[in-house]
Specification:
Number of helices: 2
Structural class: mainly alpha
Largest sheet: none
Strand content: under 5%
Distance between the termini: 24 Å
Shape: rod-shaped
Helix content: over 70%
Radius of gyration: 17 Å
Amino acid sequence: MSENLRFMEALLRFANSALAVSVVAVVATVILAYPLADSLPMAAQIGAHIATLIFATTLKLSYVTRLVSLHRLGRPVH
């Protein structure tokens, strides 16, 4: 296996892990920012809203990274 393919396999594993973590983080921060907002102090609400934006961006970047690595490996991209 060439060095490029090994790198793409490692990148795919990283992207899959980052995707899973970011999905869980987005769900958690949305729950904190909206349904539980009344029980949180204002600073925590602000932090939850900012974290939602950051983790949503991480989710998008990890998904694009996953698609690129799948394409480079010659695997089907759905």
